[in-house]
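Appendix B. Chain record.
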Amino acid sequence: MTSALSQVLATSAEEGGHHPVVNELIFEPIWFGVIAIATFLLLLGLLWSFRNTLALDPHGVAEGHQDPDAHRGTGH
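Structure tokens predicted for this chain:
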């Protein structure tokens, strides 16, 4: 073993194998889940606000009519 590795192992053996906390979380772990669920519900609300907007389509795509913009930019 290298000398640095042996020093780390010797130090950790002296401490009883307990490692000090290196990176503490900014708040309790439960709040990460709460924030994730709140974000999900916010995005779901945004998605829900756009429901039935295809019925407002001015070109009639919802009724099966051809979209006049479908061939735009293809050279036809």
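Further analysis of this model is presented in Appendix C.
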